[in-house]
Each structure stands twice: as C-alpha cells, then as structure tokens.
Write a structure and sequence with these properties.
Chain lengths: 336, 286
C-alpha cells in the first residue's frame, strides 16, 4: 500500500498533481462506489458543521470586538491610533504610545532572534547529524512550551536585576553617547521586554525556518556538493531558495511578539510614554489590556481597551495569514 | 596541478565553511542558554517552595506566612475542564472532517483559519470571552474563563486530530470499506481507535498549555482568594496566583509563585515528552 499519507501528514490532500492520488481523493472515489448511506450523510455533515464552527469563530471574534469598540470608534475615529494621551480620568484615549511600545519591543526581539533562529535552523537542517538534530529540535520546541507567566516570573527576579546591576551600567558607560542607552537604570523597561520577547520568538523562527529548509529537495544540496561546493556553500544555495519561507517564519515570529502579554507586562514598566532610551519604562497594547481591563470603570474606558484588542486582532490576523500563505506556497512547491 | 592562488582560495573556502559550522553551533547553544537558565532556576526555587501545604491548604490572609494554593489547583482544574468540555468536541469533529473529507476549498479555508486562529494573542481571546460571556452575565465567572480556554484549544486540537488521523495507513480505511462497512463506521471504529493514542496525547498537551495561560483569565475568571467551585462565580487559578503573588512584596508569596511555576512547567514538560515519544513511534511503524 502507499505510504503517501504518512510521509506528508499536513499537505497530503493538497499535494495533487502527478503520482499517487492523495488519501482523501482515493477514499472519496471509493465511497462513491459504495451504496448511499444515511449514516454517512449525517456523519459527514455533522463533522462539517463543526468545521464551519471553527471558521465562523474567527468572524464572530472580529465582529464582537468591532461592536464592543463602537463607542471609541465613533468618538475618536482614526485619531485613536495617532494621539498620545491615555487618561481614563478625563476619558481621553490615544493609543499611539502603546502601538509604538508594541512595535519597538517586537522589533528588538526580531533583531536578536532572527539571526540566532536562522543559525539554529541552518544547524538543525543542514549541518547537524541526525542523532543530534532530534534532541536539539525537541529542546528548541520546549522553549516555546514554557508558559508566558513563567518567563515573566523569571524576567522579574533574574533578568531585570541582571540588567539593572550589570548590563545597563555597562552599556551607558560604554555607549552612553547613543540616545538608546541613556537615563537611569531601572531594569524594568523596553530593553527587558525586547530581550524576553526575543527568547520567546526564537523557537518559532527556528522551527519554521527549519521546516522550510527541510522541504527543499536534497537534489539541490547534492548538486551543489557534487560540484565541489563546501557544506556552507551548498547551504547558501538552499538559503536562496528558502528566502521567502524564512520571511514567512519571521512574520509568524513577529505575530507572536506583537501579541505576547504576560511576560511583557511583567517587565516593561507599564508607563504610557514614548522615549528613545531603551532603559525607560514603556507600555504595550497587550499589557494595557492585561493591566487595566478588569478595573475599567466607564463604558468608554472598556470600549477603548476593546478597540486596542481589535487592532491587535487585525494586526495578528494579517501577519499570520500572510506568513501562512508564504510558508505554504514554499513548502507545497517543493513537495509536489 | 593547482596553483598557489587556487590552493589559497580552497583553504579560504574551507576555513569559511568551518567558521560557519561553528557559528551555527554557537547559535543553537546560545539559544538554549535561556532554556537551561529558566528550567534550573524554576527547579531550584520551585522544589524548595513545594510542600504538602501548597497542595492542600488555602491561601492565608495578607501578611501571614504559610498556606497553599489548594483552591487555585482545583480552580485551574475546573477551568481546563470547562475549556475541554466546550473546545474538544468542536476541535475533534472539525479535525475528523478535515482528515476524512478535507479535499475541497471549504476545508482548505477552515485549515487556514485554524492556523490563523492559533496565532491570535490569548489576551484578545480573553477580551472576546469577556464581551460574549461576562457582559451579558454582568459578572466575572469560571464559565467565561472556560470559554476563553476553549477558543484557545480549538485550533490546536483540530490540527492535531487531523494530522494524527492522516498518519493511519490508508489500507486500514480500504479494508473497512472493502468488507462493506459504511464510511462513517469505518472512521469511528477503525480509523479513530488507531489514531487514538496520538490524538489523546495531543489533546493532553493542548490542555496543559491552556493550563499555563494567564492573560485570558485575568478578566474572565478573575481569581478568587476563597474556596469556590461554582462556575458562575469568579474562580482561582494557578497562573493568576503567580501573577498576583509575583507583584507582592512578601517573600512567602514569591516563594509560592515559584512553586506554582514549577508545577506548571513540570506538567507541560512531562506531556511534551510523552507526546514526542508517542508520535515518534507512530512514524516509526509505517
């Protein structure tokens, strides 16, 4: 019997083209030849109903948040995203510093985790022997399984004191002429948030890039090596084919960083300000919701927080959809 | 014969090759440093914080040392129970559909949206649960927390179920159909039992991850310092306790939050290893 379905569990149904037809296609053809059966009809449509449930869940979420933020949408319009005053007492809401904080902390995270994650992916896919690849892959994935709150706890009691006592004084005495490394060393702040995010994003970038690299046919490696290329030179050939897939992995990582809540809330300092210095406390969209939602007293306040959640929802949907499309198209191209 | 220039160039290429291998090795070692640090720190702090009281005592009033998190342990159990109750049927059935009938554009869309859904921040899911459950009920409740966790579980359970069913060799399906068993019975009595081990551990992993969620519980289940198992009332959870205690100025509370962190990490670690072993043996069989 064919082993097609176990070789590519995810895309077997879409793999189509020449060769052996995918599992679902064979069986539906078989099913058509058997007698029509009430049980089959009911079962198929019952499962389909639940699949429809998953689909409508996404739209329901968007709709509920859109409706929930009507109050601030009509009052502030697009200014909500562009103004900087966040004052629940005066019922004045501007989310710009929050968006800025989210984007900057995510950017710092990518700056660190992209090169590292790519290095990890190259090692796992191209250079490591197989007996080394499996345990290392598992360890990297374990990094993604640690709950956000545990990262945050570790951030408060280990990372932040270390930053305050060693890293920040060193940075400001050696690179203090740069605007990023000025001001008092609190430990809590943008730098801590960016660092902890980079640890959390790294496993995503590493494991998806590894999948993309592994999806590229080994014919390309063999061709390069056969021409006398070194291991690294053949890796460069592979990398150039995998470029767009790596972009997809990066976008997925960005999506995770943008929405990460607990760890960031615990170390970012929670002050709605914009500062060039990475030492100063900041705020992010996810943290403002985590901190203030349960205490939001007025309906305008709640609406403002729901609107932030809505913006976050749209941002992550776009990032994830884009990334998945890119990753899918790359892995599928090489699989058929 | 190679000229000196060519030899030098070859030497340069080989050096570069070795340098890049070392660099990528350095990358992975550096990437694992935080893992080792976090695990060892949680292990050291957590083990010394755990005692019998942690599991069977209620939290003590502010200022008193001792006490435990019995209510939070039960609360987390109830929350993930509710989440599983709402989330698993949807996830499993949708997963069956995708694996068995998933050869059309509609299924492609569902698959795609399930993946996108798994990337939506958990705090956003919390806000949605707040809007659809807390607002109509007018107060925080375990139910709202359960709904949030259910939404978080659904995409993972859907995709895991689908992948595990796809690992079942196609000959199993054909054998069932060949002896005249209807398709649905083949799925339920032959395919599902075969895939059950993988599906179960995948589901357990999804549940363990839901148990580690904090953000969606902050303003749905809220938290509770007292004993409560009512699903229409605020309920305690381990993660929210970690969050609250970590901000507190009391040594003893911080000790307890490390204890809770250790319990969570141990749970997730053990289930990850089991999942790894189970899925690996499945791959090896075929």
């Amino acid at each position: 019997m064919t082993q097609e379905s176990s070789a590519f569990p995810i895309d077997a149904s879409t793999a189509g083209g020449g060769g052996i037809p995918p599992a679902a296609a064979v069986s539906s053809r078989l099913a058509r030849k058997t007698r029509w059966n009430v049980g089959d009809f009911v079962f198929k449509h019952l499962t389909m109903l639940f699949a429809l449930g998953v689909l409508s869940l996404v739209f329901l979420m968007g709709y509920e948040m859109y409706k929930g933020s009507e109050l601030t949408m009509t009052k502030f319009g697009w200014n909500f995203l562009a103004t900087s005053i966040w004052d629940p007492v005066q019922d004045e809401y501007g989310a710009f510093p929050l968006i800025f904080g989210t984007l900057l902390s995510s950017f710092i995270a990518l700056l660190i985790s992209l090169p590292l994650g790519l290095g990890v992916a190259i090692f796992l896919s191209e250079l490591a022997p197989r007996w080394l690849e499996r345990p290392f892959s598992f360890l990297v994935e374990l990094l993604a399984a640690i709950p956000s709150i545990v990262y945050g706890l570790w951030g408060i009691f280990v990372l932040v004191p270390w930053l305050r006592l060693s890293v920040q004084p060193w940075l400001s005495s050696n690179f203090g002429y740069l605007p990023f490394f000025r001001g008092p060393a609190y430990g809590f702040g943008m730098l801590a948030a960016g660092l902890i995010l980079s640890v959390m994003v790294l496993p995503i970038i590493a494991s998806i890039s590894r999948d993309v690299l592994q999806a590229i046919p080994s014919l390309q490696r063999e061709a390069a090596l056969g021409l006398g290329a070194t291991r690294w030179e053949s890796t460069r050939v592979i990398l150039s084919s995998a470029k767009s897939g790596i972009l997809g992995a990066t976008l997925l990582g960005l999506g995770r960083a943008v929405g990460e809540t607990m760890a960031v809330t615990m170390v970012i300092g929670n002050r709605s300000e914009i500062s060039a210095s990475l030492f100063s406390p900041a705020y992010s969209m996810a943290s403002v919701i985590a901190n203030e939602f349960a205490e939001a007293s007025s309906s305008m306040y709640t609406s403002a927080l729901i609107e932030i959640a809505f913006v976050l929802f749209v941002m992550t949907i776009v990032l994830n959809a884009l990334a998945r499309l890119i990753v899918w198209s790359v892995t599928r191209r090489f699989r058929t | 014969m190679m000229t000196t220039n060519e030899k030098l160039y070859l030497l340069w290429r080989k050096t570069k090759n070795n340098a890049m291998i070392l660099f990528s090795l350095a990358c992975i070692l550096l990437a694992l440093v935080p893992l080792v640090l976090i695990f060892s720190y949680t292990l050291i702090q957590g083990i010394s914080a755990l005692n019998l009281d942690f599991f069977i005592q209620m939290p003590k009033p502010v200022g008193e040392t001792g006490g435990g998190m019995a209510n939070a342990i039960v609360g987390t159990g109830i929350l993930i129970g509710l989440g599983a109750l709402f989330g698993l049927p949807v996830g499993i059935m949708a997963g069956i559909y995708l694996a068995e009938y998933g050869d059309n554009p509609f299924a492609g869309t569902v698959r795609f949206l399930a993946d996108v859904l798994s990337g939506i921040p958990s705090i956003v899911v919390g806000v949605v649960a707040y809007v659809i459950v807390v607002l109509p009920m007018k107060h925080f409740s375990a139910l709202a927390g359960g709904v949030a966790l259910a939404i978080l579980m659904i995409p993972t359970v859907t995709r895991t179920t689908e992948e595990m069913i796809r690992l079942v060799p196609h000959s199993f399906r054909e054998a069932g159909l060949a002896i005249g068993i209807p398709r649905w019975k083949t799925t339920l009595r032959i395919i599902l039992p075969t895939a059950m081990k993988g599906i179960t551990t995948g589901i357990l992993l999804a549940i363990a991850r839901a148990a580690g969620e904090t953000a969606p519980l902050l303003f749905t289940a809220l938290g509770n310092r007292f004993w409560s198992t009512a699903i229409d009332q605020p309920i305690a959870s381990l993660t929210v306790f970690i969050y609250d205690y970590s901000k507190a100025p009391f040594e003893d509370w911080i000790r307890q939050s490390w204890g809770a962190a250790f319990v969570l990490i141990a749970l997730i670690f053990i289930l990850s290893v089991i999942f790894r072993i189970v899925t690996r043996s499945r791959y090896a069989e075929h």
